[in-house]
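User: Second chain of the day. Same drill as before.
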Amino acid sequence: MPGTLRQRTRDLRYGVTGSYTYRSSGQSFERTAQQGTWDTNTDWVGNFSGDNSLTIQRDEWRYAKVNGTVSGIGGLKDIDHWPLTLLPTPEPLGRFGYVNLDNLVVTALAKMNPSAPHVSIPTFIGELKDIPSLVRSWGRNVLEWLANANLWWRFGVRPLIGDIQRIFSFQKSVANRMKWLEKLKTTGSVRRQVKLGIDTWHLDSPLTVVESAACLVKALKYEDASRTTWASSKWTLPSGAALPRMDYGQLRNLAIRLTYGIDSFEAFRTAWELLPWSWLIDWFIPVGDWLTACGNSLGLQCLRVCIMRTFVGTLGFYAFSGYPSGAEVIGDHWSRRVYKYRTVHLGTLLPTPSIPAITAGQWSILGSLAALKGRKSL
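Assistant: Same format as last time:
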């Protein structure tokens, strides 16, 4: 039975009121700031066993206050828990580039696919032969050397180190694969979850005025933002699958072959990986991930893929200074916005990879290639 869309709002803010009063005239001024949390939630009810989309937004504010007795143009004034200038709400979504969700689903499926190898031995062996020629191709001038070094690290050394580390974790990798296979054999399904990355952004601003009504207060300003992405999926065995009839020895042999990519489909993916310039295409369009996601040596079915993303943005002030003697600033002064999204995608309809917005890392790769191309054309 399909669920019913539900929207809820919860406002837990409360007023924080402060004042300052001139002693000579008795004139008083007040300021009220809304402090606390405000939440909105859009989810589904009535479909407990299914995968449902979810959207959560939480805003939160905390205000520092000024206390004390100061002297100004109007004479002495008493300040009583005066909240500093009202805080804007940060917007973390604008701090990161556009993410193509179809490409994200492809990458998630490639990482969660129980048939995907832990490390592809055929690809590893095929790429080893390219190392001597890569070393000989290093340029002699500084620009060409740096360009080669950037490409060498990203597409040569770093992947090679990762493959070697995975090869040495043989026992653990096979044991994990055995757990998946045994669960598939006994229950007919297995759930997978994978982290897809954490991105951060930070900005420090110079000393700025955060209060001028009750008295002058300055502070340093900072802004932080983060994006965390992960995914989950459920894989099931179709009726008539051979896996439930396998004994322990057959399961272990299968686990070893799957762990190291020793099967017919991996040979096809290896052919793609060893094609000239396939590494550059994969850097922009995840064709390799798409091929890995399509690999299905176990004949499993994936009905849904859930992509979860959390964005957190914080804006705050610290190191208060510049206020007159007789005054003090107490408490913290910051605001925060949190978004949580869960989107559900059909695992049976694998998206077609497409070209996303070019990131800073991808621009650096294009710059390195341009430097090498420009050098050779001189």
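The radius of gyration is 29 Å.

User: Great, on to the next one.
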